[in-house]
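Input:
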Amino acid sequence: MGLTTRMLTPDTWDDFAALVESNNGVWGGCWCMGFHPGGSTGTRQGNHDAKQQLVQQGAVHQVLVYDEERCVGWCQFGTPPELPNIKSRRAYDAEAQDPPDWRIGCIFTNSKDRGNGIAAAAVHGALEEIKRAGGGVVEAYPEQTADRPPQRGAYLHTGPEELYARHGFVRDRRIAKWRWVMRATL
Ligand SMILES: CC(C)(COP(=O)(O)OP(=O)(O)OC[C@H]1O[C@@H](n2cnc3c(N)ncnc32)[C@H](O)[C@@H]1OP(=O)(O)O)[C@@H](O)C(=O)NCCC(=O)NCCS
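Output:
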């Protein structure tokens, strides 16, 4: 695949929307709203509209991955105020420490294109953007895949640990049976 990355902006909104629509709204219509302030609106159309409004306001950091002109995946990142709603939030908050400068929220690859390095390209693109924006401490909340039965990608909601380990992220603490806080300094 000839993979390239672009940021999600009003100019690339239609490409993002086509990908989300072809994946049934992603998780029943989340539209990648779950980690933003306010979280899901509770309806597909509400999430679509809320996400589009955030994009129009420039309040979203999200790398899109393209195979030629087709958008095939993304990696969402942002500051903690931009992405306050991580998965396993209660366990995370119970042992809260200094907040990171950046966190990676949602990662997603078109269901028919998995296993082709798209998520890897998305994380690489996000980390490059974070460096360009000044870097700092970055957190991700991926899932352990070693020492457990093989998992379908569909169940690796926050991505596999290997995706981050290869960029120097190290385990900080466990926040769910298979989910870790991983940190790196860029
Ligand atoms: C997890 C997910 C992002 C992986 O995307 P992908 O484009 O298939 O991943 P890549 O091909 O870039 O793989 C990168 C690395 O991740 C790891 N990986 C990917 N899928 C894996 C799996 N099912 N099990 C174990 N490791 C996996 C591998 O280490 C792989 O590296 P390798 O190719 O050198 O072995 C994808 O399956 C997905 O979108 N799942 C749904 C996630 C979701 O629902 N997100 C929204 C909810 S918040």
